């Protein structure tokens, strides 16, 4: 059974699967045991935990970093490339779960479901009716980042009678309108959905100027990464009523997020649960383990990340130490 460095905590159902197939150790155990550190050829982690360059450089025989998750923006990719380690993630298996959460957040936002629940529980219904909300049908939806998850969101929204447009690096010649200019997409959208990868290329893409284009009738949904939004600018826009509302599953500094977000009645908050279903997390854990087994058996992997071209998505802001993150 191979020894792995484990960075991050996994749901119990996934950890029990992992522990049946590999011996996992924490950073402290490796720091105290040179022989163990030299035996470790793999890191297993989750995409919302950091894998800094010093951790990678400290493992002389590292061959694989297996990420349970699709995002790899918290892994020091350049350090992995220097070490000659392959980096794998778990694409495709989580597309449906993240898209389902996005659709749920969209309804929660437009129909103000969390506020309606609080309204009933507070007994306010006895005093009068809950305020009118907004339809989804007829809305103009702009998707920033039409990758695998973005396309899944678009496919799930089409039956609801919406108009779909998207922004990204290139026109994919799909049935939905491509908008090369992000500001123009925000201006022409009632709801802007962020589904782009995290990392340097998308860092703070949604800033005060884009939010101003979205405007007082516009809503923002983020199921991508907190780093994609200039969060102080978003908080300012919400406080000044410059946008109609937001639904956020990802944030800066998870789980210690900016508590000013708690005070907005027109904001839906979820704790980075895009892929957090039993079925999906088991499928992600299975694919992560299969990558590891394939590597140790043959030196190949199922879902490698192409390190060279994707350094544009390289780590945006690696914390000094791997941070325990919920989600
Ligand atoms: C969570 C995600 O990170 O896959 C990603 O990039 O953000 C989510 O799936 C989850 O914690 C991954 O294990």
As a percent range, the share of strand residues is: 5-15%
Helix and strand succession?
EHEHHEHEHEHHEHEEHEHEHEEH
Helical residues, percent: 25-40%
Query: What structural category do the secondary elements indicate?
Result: alpha/beta
The gross shape turns out to be: elongated
Q: How does CATH name the architecture of the largest domain?
A: 3-Layer(aba) Sandwich
| Helix count, DSSP H or I runs of 4 or more residues | 12
Main sheet properties: 7 strands, parallel
Mean pLDDT: 94
Unreliable spans are: 316-327
- So, the CATH homologous superfamily of the largest domain? NAD(P)-binding Rossmann-like Domain
Molecules bound to protein: 2-keto-D-gluconic acid
Q: What top-tier CATH class of the largest domain fits best?
A: Alpha Beta
Briefly, what is this?
The protein is an alpha/beta fold and 327 residues long. The chain has helices spanning 12-21, 27-31, 34-39, 53-57, 77-83, 95-110, 113-121, 148-157, 182-187, 208-214, 231-239, 278-298; strands at residues 3-7, 23-25, 42-46, 64-68, 86-88, 140-144, 163-167, 177-178, 191-194, 219-222, 245-248, 267-269.
Topology:
Blueprint lengths: L2 E5 L4 H10 L1 E3 L1 H5 L2 H6 L2 E5 L6 H5 L6 E5 L8 H7 L2 E3 L6 H16 L2 H9 L18 E5 L3 H10 L5 E5 L9 E2 L3 H6 L3 E4 L13 H7 L4 E4 L8 H9 L5 E4 L18 E3 L8 H21 L29
Parallel strand pairs: 1-2, 1-3, 3-4, 4-5, 6-7, 6-9, 7-8, 9-10, 10-11, 11-12
Bound molecules: 2-keto-D-gluconic acid.
The site of 2-keto-D-gluconic acid (8YV) has 11 residues, from loops.
Structural write-up:
The protein has two domains: 124 residues, Rossmann fold (3-Layer(aba) Sandwich); 175 residues, Rossmann fold (3-Layer(aba) Sandwich), CATH 3.40.50.720. The protein has 327 residues and is α/β, with parallel strands linked by helices. It starts with a strand and ends in a 29-residue tail after the last helix. The protein contains twelve helices and twelve strands. 2-keto-D-gluconic acid (8YV) binds next to loops.
